[in-house]
Amino acid sequence: MSDEKKGWKELPIGAILEAGTAKNYKTGDWRHIRPIWNKEKCIQCLRCWIYCPDSSIIIKDGKVDGIDLDHCKGCGICAAECPVKPVKAITMVSEKEIK
Amino acid sequence: MRKKLAITGNEAVAYAMKQINPDVVAAYPITPATEIVQIFSQYVADGEVNTEFVAVESEHSAMSATIGASAAGSRAMTATSSQGLALMFEMLYIASALRLPIVMPEVNRSLSAPINIHADHSDTMGARDCGWLQIYCENSQEAYDSLIQAVRIAEESLLPIMVTIDGFIISHAMEAVDTFDNKEVQNFIGKYKPAHPLLDIKHPITIGAIDFNDYYFEHKRSQIEAMNNVEPVILKINEEFKKSFGRGYGLFEEYMMQDAETAIVVIGSTAGTAKVAVDNLRKQGKKVGLLRLRVFRPFPAEKLSKALSHLKAVAVLDRSTGMNAYAGPVCTEVASSLYTHSDLPASQQAGKKPKILNYIYGLGGRDIFVEDIQKVYVDLENVAKGEKTEKLINYIGVRE
Amino acid sequence: MPSLKELSKEKESLSGGHRLCAGCGASIVARQVLLTAPKPLVVTCATGCLEVATTIFPYTAWEMPWMHSAFENAAATCSGIESAYQSLKKQGTLPVDANINFITFGGDGGTYDIGLQSLSGAMERGHKMLYVCYNNQAYMNTGIQRSSATPKGGFTTTSPVGKVKPGKEQSRKDLTEIMVAHNIPYVAQAVVGDWRDLTTKVQKALSKDGPSFINVLTPCRLGWGCAPEKTLDIGRLAADTCFWPLYEVEEGVYKLTHKPKEKKPIIKLLKLQDRFKHLFKKGNEALLAEIQEDIDKKWKKLLFLCGEKSE
Prior knowledge:
Number of helices of chain B: 13
Helix content of chain A: 10-25%
CATH architecture of the largest domain in chain B: 3-Layer(aba) Sandwich
Structural class of chain B: alpha/beta
Oligomer: heterotrimer
Largest sheet of chain B: 6 strands, mixed
Order of helices and strands of chain A: EEHEEHEH
Radius of gyration of chain B: 21 Å
């Protein structure tokens, strides 16, 4: 990474940045537990999406379409908020178990 | 229409601001700069400018709002003095590092404590290393002209600039000032084209991100280079100004320096007093000169040392103190530039550099008189002859 | 009132890849505010967790024009940007139909304390901007120091629990009421965990032709000592215990936006957070009682202001 960093002559004036570049930074490896989304059980209430602190619930045509594991930090909010009973449409599983 | 107006320094500054017609002015009143804000508010109230005036609740917010306005993509100005500048201190660094071409008239006044409203240079000297360009003016005419030039200098170099006048001595003194037509001023400064305006919603950017130790140094280095490149910009714009308006100013002004053997270096309004002293001594056949430093940032080290290095002795007058630094701030920098720059090859420099004296004067508005300055020239003569031991730091006008 | 279906059609305004803690409430608040606000937006931030963690050079999570300058001056910075917008629009440099909304985020440090003066100034001057305080009741960015938003009895690193002191000894400042006293068109209290309430308030706030302020209680897992997935539950419980009532003051008129079906005892909320665990030790019974009394008293006053019957 360090050799990709630009020298002072190449950096934009005033240290400005183009918007939205953080997508290129992966925070998925922070995760100890992973949300597993069950499409069949999902009622598309979008609660997981509106409460995700990491914008990691993927939406396609107004519906949940998966989880962005590149950025999801595994906080468990989506699973906690999922209203589906008795088994939730999102469950948290240890990353160790998955490996 | 060009007009000769009998106006004070503050009025000249406010009038220049009116003709610049900035998009935004965010300012807070402070003695002795209050009138600038008052007069400008009246221009706004009378619809004489297009400016959105933001009557902020402090100088910190004045600079913050000006920074916001400038980053947004507007031509933005503020004005302040003394404690006001001190309150802005944090934001001064941010304005320059974000490369915002803010123009700020500054009326020089001492810093508390004890609280004092009169002229000295402690305020702007305290802000000398914050990445702002600094022009110190001798009189109202120069302040008026310099402010108009400052818009171009700032916008071309993408650096903020303060143009200063001495509190009360200039800010409140009536003087005849040649002013230009509004259109001429507008033609000279041109339409503002911001480099990367925040309000350009089609090209969204982030301004003011955090740097860790992997980027901060590079961003600072780039900012330093911007400062390094300003000198020719100032000179170029001055040439254009001369062409348009028939007068101009350099980085510094040399008065009777051609054959001078000793000289005084001074900034601000005291130069006027010092010129009278030079005239008096010249009549007595003394080879004395005066160098009035106008552009303190960027510091014209090389050109300055060339202008001084042939002298036998130089006295630098500081209207602020370094508080046990090597000397007062102007003297420290002049002495440093003489140490490292010279028109002589290094091998021939030994013993050739002028002797340097520093005089701290005028703190808190203490008057300085022609006779005080003539005495400095006598000291210089004696030091040059080797008849007086040089004491680096001396004081003018303080009771023992 | 926005629906989630409608909101989900909005372009994401805060991208993933920022470095706030897992389960941080600040980014939940920011996302909900940004998704709801009519576009285009220009956003400013005070120094704080939200600002630092989202803009580590060369990465920024903000998808719209965004600016940070310092800690205590987010409102002043925004007021300068908004003034430039008004000026350029008036002069025809910007199109007259460029209806940009200006939003500022600050934590309780940048809002209640060091930034209060610039906030007050901007609100008094009437800039058309929404200021959102994501209030986690302490200086979390510098490592959990007390603020004037820290509640009585709360542990922080500068109001620590010791042999003779039980955490913060003073009550918290009521900033929402200070903002009400500015007579701005819209002031509200919201909480992370009730998206419908917050987004409705954002819509109302931005419909006003003037400044607005929303104070959003936002748990901090580190500072409050709570599980990340409990962030929203704790927020909702803060509303249901009346520790953080949800209400709004629109054009001077008070209205409760959430009346708990059953007002829950404060200990239920306190027990979920490590910052209050010392209160349950022997000897602190009186303090616990005092905290409950204080909440009851304030709740009664709020009911009165909202024209509701006292319980």
